[in-house]
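Dear colleagues,

As part of the handover before I leave the project, I'm documenting each prediction I ran so the next person doesn't have to rerun anything. This entry is a single chain, and its sequence is reproduced below.
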Amino acid sequence: MATTKAKASAAAPEDAYTAAPFVPDGADLAALRRAAAQCRGCPLHRDATQTVFGEGAAHARVMLVGEQPGDQEDRQGRPFVGPAGKLLDRALADAGIDPGEAYVTNAVKHFKFTRSEPRKRRIHKAPNLHETAACGPWLAAELALVEPELVVVLGATAGKALLGSSFRVTEVRGTVLEREIHGRPQRLVPTVHPSSVLRADEREGAYRGLVSDLKVAARAMR
């Protein structure tokens, strides 16, 4: 049955991409992770090494949602294990949030990339709205199971996946928003993605801005 769905998905137009047929009803996080490994809801699975599902405390008070796995995440099969993830852990600790008590995931579960030449380094390519929408059922399932008190939205792609295409991280970063997300009321604090700090010309200032936003999240959970 999954093979039939996979073939149909591969031939579908972009606006018909969806992971919904691959998301099992009544599953816990472990079962969701196993099911996500077989997801063929959009073409991104074709080039990625593997699905990178969320991980962390099963009933974490805070869930952090990023854009998509990067090169290291794709190779290791775990979210936020590359340079951006290490920076995020440091920023969380500096803001007073224990990284070990959080749940981390991405809006898109497969690495999207391009190469200038065969066998050259894989270069990150941002997922489009069709791809984030296709992966939405996985994120909805994670939110329903973890039931976080607060969601930290990391960057524009995650923000658009959760809050719509009009989302602008620069307009709302460091504020507490209250919205209905996938049918349930949710509080969110948007901030930049940690990878943008690594790319910033003035990295220390960008890092302080990230920590400042995360402190808002920490205070919101007191």
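The domain at 2-220 is CATH 3.40.470.10 (Uracil-DNA Glycosylase, subunit E). Residues 1-10 have pLDDT under 50 and may be disordered.

All the best with the project,
I.
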